[in-house]
Design brief:
This is PEPxxWA-CTERM sorting domain-containing protein. InterPro entries: Ice-binding_C. It holds the Pfam family PEP-CTERM. The protein is an alpha+beta fold. The chain has a domain of 127 residues. 22% of the residues lie in helices and 37% in strands. Strands 2, 4, 6, 7, 10, 11, 12 and 13 form an 8-stranded antiparallel sheet that branches. A 4-stranded antiparallel sheet has the order 5-3-1-14, with no helix packed on it. It has a two-stranded antiparallel ribbon with strand order 8-9. The two termini are 33 Å apart. The relative contact order is 0.15. The N terminus is likely disordered.
């Protein structure tokens, strides 16, 4: 009985440790589509690209601030060509993701003399992040600010019932096979 009690204390302690350590950080793993349109220009010219659409996958730990990096960022598609490399930074206290070409410790900068892009996404850890205005520049010396912007989160695929049935059936067959197998014990 003492052995069982000692073992149960060890299991409960280990479970509490795992639960406590996993509650400290969350790994954010999302595929997002950023869309912006209705651009206005700093010099009155029409925006060369409107709407701007960028689809990207991002994975990061939201427990601490992240300075401008490309780690965990994959650009899946974009109708902006010649802008890059795209980077991100994360502000853990505000849950804001800064996204663009020139990412610094205080957000993003857009320079008129080159192809630059910048935006930030609020509440990135939530199920419904919110995109702010998108600003980009073309090397022609003008900057374009979006009047509308949105970000959508790609939903994870849910297996069909037939897939679940095959999965459960396979485990059932595996269990039945293991139960029926005879174990021969040989002594030397």
């Amino acid at each position: 009985m003492k052995k069982f009690r000692g073992l149960s204390y060890a299991v409960v302690s280990a479970a509490a440790f795992v639960a406590a350590s996993s509650a400290q950080a969350t790994i954010i793993d999302k595929t997002l589509t950023l869309t912006a349109g209705a651009f206005t220009s700093t010099n009155g010219t029409a925006a060369p690209i409107s709407p701007v659409t960028i689809q990207f996958a991002i994975t990061f730990d939201n427990s601490a601030n992240i300075q401008g990096t490309t780690n965990g960022l994959t650009i899946l598609s974009s109708n902006l060509t010649g802008w890059g490399p795209l980077k991100y930074a994360y502000d853990a206290s505000l849950d804001n993701l800064f996204f663009g070409t020139d990412i610094g410790p205080n957000g993003f900068q857009v320079f008129f003399s080159r192809n630059d892009l910048g935006t930030f996404i609020r509440n990135i850890s939530s199920a419904t992040p919110v995109a702010t205005q998108v600003q980009y520049s073309a090397a022609a010396g003008a900057s374009y600010l979006s009047g509308t912007s949105s970000v959508t989160v790609a939903q994870a695929a849910v297996p069909e019932p037939a897939t679940w049935a095959m999965f459960i059936g396979g485990f059932g067959l595996l269990g039945a096979t293991m139960r029926r197998r005879k174990i021969a014990v040989h002594f030397a």
